[in-house]
Amino acid sequence: MAIQHTARGAERAQRRDEQYVWHPWSPIDAAGQRVMADRARGHRLWDADGTEYLDASSLNSTCGYAHPAIVEAAARQLGRLHGVDLSAQSHEPSGLLAERLAGHLPGGLSRTLFTNSGSEGVEAACLIAASHWAHRGRPRTRVVTFARGYHGSTTLARSLSGLPPTSHAFRDPLRVTPVDLPADHRALRAPEFAPRLLADFATAVGGDPSDPPMAVVVEPLLNVGGGAVLPPGFLRGLRELCDTHGTLLVIDEVFTGVGRTGRMFGFEHDGVEPDVVVSSKGLSGGYAPLAAVSVQQRVYRTFSEDPVLGGLRYGHTTSGHAVSCAVGLATLDVVEREGLVENSRAMGARLLDGLAPLAGASGVVDVRGLGLVAVLELASPEAAAALAGSARHHRLLVRQQGTAVMAVPPLTIDTDAVDEVVARLSAAAREGGG
Q1: Last residue of one domain, picked from the residues 309, 337, 365
Q2: pLDDT, average across residues 124-132
Q3: pTM of the model
């Protein structure tokens, strides 16, 4: 059926969406608050009515929309081999992508399991951690993480989070020790808070020597938890803490990986080497479902001791889908060829400099960020929602996470577009959106 692009067709599309589609993570009465996206290119998106928006809301938009190299790679692979079940067969794109990832990761992080989403990747990481300790004859089942962290929407992954939207009725299978933030988001990023935060993690990790955790699972930047930038040195101290207690360090790079923070991976800002890294959104740039769970070889080797399979008891029929892996390879090609990690760092600094004057004015209580993650914190969720709505009227799409409004444009964004984001978001704030 052909998509209609007339005004009448746009109205029908909106009604159809409101009647039949159940949108994730959204109030049921949110109809009419969404842009009905029709087409996009670069960092611009057009709705079904033809209105053009500057998109600074797509968390997984590494290379922007309709990048010809990625579109061509997906089409070429789709025409050659769309996929096979990797539990029974294999294909070259999965090996090529795993090899490329190993080249971007430190040390022994050279064995990668592919899944379809970040949620699946985090769930796999937890199961891998638990199995690793069981194989060593030292079973562990406890996880330490941020109370305000977010790690996905599957039952096990959402059990890691203490955020109200992730609550559910099946928490018992996973024992989680949550760690609260010792300060509000505005103060947290200061270096002096690293020791306080590490002391709280030390209590959570080593407070009961008879019950050591199987893993500490953290994000390098708390995304859904309000765009919280962690203090420098925290991940380095956390690595030392995990080494002291013999605990695996799992870094959730689902949002931050592949250049978003101005480094290829967020953990690189502190120069640490995790035991497990989960990456997803940036890896395929939103062009195909894909996540990667990269583990140290010493963790991988323990799976030969599994008494049932002698290997990993986890996976999905479309894990490591050939088209998704081809897209991941093309995305990394573009990231490297176009210098998008460096561009993220430079454009992120320009974006933050442009937005900094809003702090303390127009209801904005803080401006912070890392790489191409710019955060405006408002006094309340209602004020943040108002600012996001006002930005949309200025044809700028941003994200709201609680009291935070986040601008996360594609890593391909240029100086003119960054200045445009600043101008539109500043105008929205001045007009009372904040």
Answers
A1: 337
A2: 96
A3: 0.93
